[in-house]
Amino acid sequence: MDILEDNRAYETAVEKKCISSCRVPLHNQNLLSIPNDHLYHIALSSGDNDLRQMFGDVKFVCFGGTPSRMEKFARFMSRELGLGTAPAHNFAGNTDRYALYKAGPVLSVSHGIGIPSLSIVFQEIVKLVYYAGCEDVTFFRIGTSGGIGLEPGTVVISESVVNGQLEPIYKQIILGKQVERPAVVDQDLAQNLHNLALEDDRYKTVKGTTLCADDFYEGQGRIDGAFCEHDEEEKMLWLREMHEAGVTNLEMESLGFIAMCHRANIKGAVLCVTLLDRFEGDGITTNLQLLHEWQTYPQMLAARFIKSTLGL
Ligand SMILES: O=P(O)(O)O[C@@H]1C[C@H](O)[C@@H](CO)O1
Ligand SMILES: O=c1cc[nH]c(=O)[nH]1
């Protein structure tokens, strides 16, 4: 039986209530008529690769901006899960677009910068876990952000995600029309992650509202980009307004990530460390060694969640 037939048989069994559903569902019936679906940006395909055998055991998918961070995370997870210290294999190595590593039941995926870049790899990963017949899958974005009124190096678990107009809505233009996708955060998952933060962690962990911008510079109110038509006073006024509205951090993917998790019916959470306090400035001037250490904090919290879920 091929992947699509087997998945159809599974869905029929779910519909007839013979089994309860925990596999990643199919959201696009058009895929049923594509015998060999090329996941072009990750250089894998449903007909040429045995996705079940390669990825059927995946339970957690962790996304983050850069290939090297996600390779290091895969190696860290491999050690944490007692799977050894061998170099991680990049399954998407035949393309330069994204990187994809696996450590036991954990996939580690780079997504680049911004929702358009995230959206492409996110969709191909959703198809991958569907074709692989994965069950009980949870997605995380483990990234970086700019904080507002927080000590740099603080981990923020997003309890809500909003666009630049403070709406929890991801807006897309499809066939020339604006489509709105609600960005609904899984509050249980966010709280379960927060419960794993320990008093003696070397970083603070808070829950907060993450503002997802379309840009790093003007879109996040910075005045140090190549272009700027507002001044320091207007920037500070805006930052104070955002702070009063409960915004704790600014980054560039959370809104699309959470909206797509919600749409895919996949549990998802966003955990980002803050690299600076925007009340103190715009530039990221902390030394690279410390920045690299801070980037590991959301990874450590995600690893703690993964291990506790696996009963380790
Ligand atoms: O996960 P990362 O640290 O790559 O995400 C943030 C948001 C933007 O993609 C990028 C801007 O520097 O960093
Ligand atoms: O200030 C910051 C830091 C990291 N990523 C962002 O998008 N903004």
From TrEMBL:
GO molecular function: uridine phosphorylase activity
Residues noted as binding substrate in the record, renumbered to the chain: 220, 222
A single GO BP: nucleotide catabolic process
GO-annotated cellular components: cytosol
Binding-site positions, phosphate: 97, 141-144
Alphabetical list of Pfam families matching this protein: PNP_UDP_1
Annotated ranges, domain Nucleoside phosphorylase: 59-280
Family affiliation: Belongs to the PNP/UDP phosphorylase family.
Protein's UniProt name: Nucleoside phosphorylase domain-containing protein
High-level lineage: Eukaryota, Metazoa, Spiralia, Lophotrochozoa, Mollusca
